[in-house]
Design brief:
alpha/beta; seven-stranded parallel beta sheet; 9 strands
Length: 267
């Protein structure tokens, strides 16, 4: 996110990517309130570089948010099929069933907007305290009765492994009919007690992508895979506008993970 749209497109092409997963959220490539003006400009530069924009990452979790309609309408007009939804959270002050009901209501309303603009919202299973969807079952319950073409899943193996080290294949099978997009990233257990989640380069951690891709082969998956770089890269991994690593160091790290991912896909 330290680059302008043209620089971003050129850098992504140099790394070897086929496309870009733009962040259209607070602090992202495109601020939500600038979606109508800046999202077309970003997409234009990316396409000039010979790349595609099949999906964007948003913070959308309410149809009533003043920026939601503008983002979805603009994305649909640009031919962007998928967007990642924002998160819902559990609260210690309310019953779990209430959070579940709230998520289902909001996802149903968003499904109506998605149908109107020809897009689909994918919810990422994010590990961590109080994250709705971390355990998958709640996301399955909240999307019952909603078309998978309108509300789906961005399946994140890294997060699924944190929450269910050996049960993630069952978790995936539960939501597989809604999985349109994937995330590629890795982690390992660290710290003195080996209880701290530490992000790391692909292939150096616990996420078993070779086994996951074998399972995926049975599902005839063909959607976009978004590589997330969340291990230390001089602040670039956190969206810094002024990362402390230079361009070449960041480029090499990204190319390395992409090579690992491609080797798994080829296998």
């Amino acid at each position: 996110q330290w680059l302008d749209f043209k620089g971003l497109a050129e850098f992504a092409a140099e790394v070897g990517f086929d496309g870009v997963d733009l962040t259209v959220r607070p602090g992202g490539h495109v601020p939500p309130e600038r979606a109508r003006d800046d999202l077309p400009k970003a997409v234009e530069e990316i396409r000039k570089a010979g790349l595609v924009v099949p999906t964007i990452t948003t913070a959308i979790n309410s149809a009533g948010d003043p920026n939601t309609k503008a983002i979805l309408e603009t994305a649909g007009s640009l031919g962007i099929r998928y967007y990642r939804l924002g998160y819902f959270r559990y609260s210690d002050d309310e019953p779990v069933t209430m959070a579940l009901s709230h998520a289902k209501t909001e996802l149903s309303k968003l499904a109506d907007l998605n149908k109107q603009f020809g897009v689909c919202g994918d919810y990422q299973n994010h590990a961590g305290t109080n994250y709705f969807g971390a355990s998958i079952w709640d996301l399955v319950k909240a999307t019952e009765g909603i078309s998978p073409d309108l509300i789906g899943s961005q399946f994140d193996l890294r997060h699924a492994t944190v929450e269910g080290a050996q049960s993630w294949p069952i978790d995936f099978r539960m939501i597989a009919n809604r999985v349109h997009t994937l995330v590629a990233k890795d982690f390992r257990w660290g710290g003195a007690e080996k209880t701290k989640v530490e992000n790391c380069p692909l292939g150096e951690g616990m996420a078993d992508f070779p086994s996951f891709f074998k399972l995926l082969n049975k599902k005839d998956f063909s959607g976009p895979i978004s590589v997330h770089y969340e291990y230390p890269l001089g602040g670039a991994e956190k969206g810094s506008r002024e990362p402390k690593l230079n361009r070449v160091e960041i480029l090499k790290a990204m190319q390395r993970d992409l090579r690992v991912l491609k080797s798994w896909l080829e296998a």
